[in-house]
Amino acid sequence: MSTFLKRLLGNILEESEVSKLTSSFDVIGSIVILKIPETLVDRKQVIANAILNNIKSARSVYMQTSPVIGDHRTRKLELIAGDDSPITLYKEYGCRFKVDVEQTYFSPRLSTERSRIANLAFEDEVVTNMFAGVGTFSIIICKYRNVKKVYNVDINRAAHELSIYNSRLNKMEEKIESFCGDAKEVIKSHINGKSNRVLMPLPEKAKYFVCDAVACLKEEQGMIHYFQHVRADSKKSAVENGRSETEDAFREYSHDIQFLHVVREVGPRFYQLVSDVLIKKGTR
Ligand SMILES: C[S@@+](CC[C@H](N)C(=O)[O-])C[C@H]1O[C@@H](n2cnc3c(N)ncnc32)[C@H](O)[C@@H]1O
After folding, report:
1. What is the 3-state secondary structure (H, E, C) of the chain?
2. Which domain covers residue 221, as residue numbers?
3. Exposure check for the chain: N or C terminus, fewer CB within 10 A?
4. CATH code (residue 235)
5. What pLDDT was estimated at residue 284?
6. CA 13 to centroid of ligand 1, rounded, Å
7. Residue minimizing CA distance to atom 17 of ligand 1
8. pLDDT at 151 over 90
9. pTM of the entire structure?
10. Statement to judge: residues 125 and 167 lie in one domain
């Protein structure tokens, strides 16, 4: 959160109250989403109005009233100021994305990870994004790397339709093909054995899809970006726990964890990690 906003809310809240708010504050295009702790809910209107009046791009301020839930990984939102308009245009690394913050999952907090993975892709690679959402990882990969093809899969029709829209918006519809459905089914029927690189950005459940990600890879070898959630007392032990959980998830395959790091802290003693796992198919 910017010093500007800290100063802004500092005029209407105690310092300790400001810090509670600032840890969960996202600006996505014209939309601001914040979590308001129980103790501050009766001040939500004044907080939202201060934000709306002082952030130039803000048109709508929503309070998040549920965690990210369900297969579609969406959250419940309550409008507290401005227009009730959960659809916005978001820009990242020179790409544009139409985003629906109510019907689909979207987080600006993954932007560094999106850029890191995009920079790892090689020319002429085929990439599968098993849990593509509105297509952010895929579009950024295509923008920065001359890959041959990207396959998107998502079970949420709203996310699937936005991923198609976003591919066109960024003039990448020739390279990106989007499928709506369960990744297990789509891989089996359409994209088995076609990819050099597979993204698994569904940390809550990726471990149940490891065999599908491996099946998606071409015969020789390939890279899997495996997202996971790990409980740990510190960042250091999160990395240790994450490594052993990744080893366990890929134990049936000849693999090498080439990189592993904490993407972000998602709750108290709860971390999101990603591992880059090289798979050598046909050997064990
Ligand atoms: C955490 S979000 C992905 C975010 C996205 N990669 C991004 O950066 O914005 C996970 C996505 O997986 C989708 N999903 C959940 N279960 C699925 C499944 N079995 N098959 C395909 N997609 C699934 C959800 O609809 C959701 O859009």
Report:
1. CCHHHHHHHHCCCCHHHHHHHHCCEEEECCEEEECCCHHHHHHHHHHHHHHHHHCCCCCEEEEECCCCECCCCECCEEEEEECCCCEEEEEECCEEEEEECCCCCCCHHHHHHHHHHHCCCCCCCEEEECCCCCCHHHHHHHHHCCCCEEEEEECCHHHHHHHHHHHHHCCCCCCEEEEECCHHHHHHHHHCCCECEEEECCCCCHHHHHHHHHHHECCCEEEEEEEEEEECCCHHHHHHHHHHHHHHHCCCCEEEEEEEEEEEEEECCEEEEEEEEEEECCCC
2. 94-280
3. C
4. 3.40.50.150
5. 60
6. 37
7. 155
8. yes
9. 0.95
10. yes
What percentage of the chain exceeds 70 in pLDDT?
Answer: 97
Cβ(97) – ligand 1 distance below 6 Å: no
Q: How far is the CA of 5 from the centre of ligand 1 (A)?
A: 32
**CATH number of the domain residue 81 falls in:** 3.30.300.110
Cα–ligand 1 centroid distance for 182 (angstroms): 10
15: CA distance to ligand 1 center in Å? Answer: 37
* Average pLDDT for 21-42: 88
pLDDT, one tens digit per residue, over 96-149 is 999 999 999 999 999 999 999 999 999 999 999 999 999 999 999 999 999 999
Nearest CA to ligand 1 atom 5: 133
Domain count, the chain: 2
Q: Ligand 1 pocket: which of 155, 160, 164 to mutate (most atoms <8 Å of CB)?
A: 155
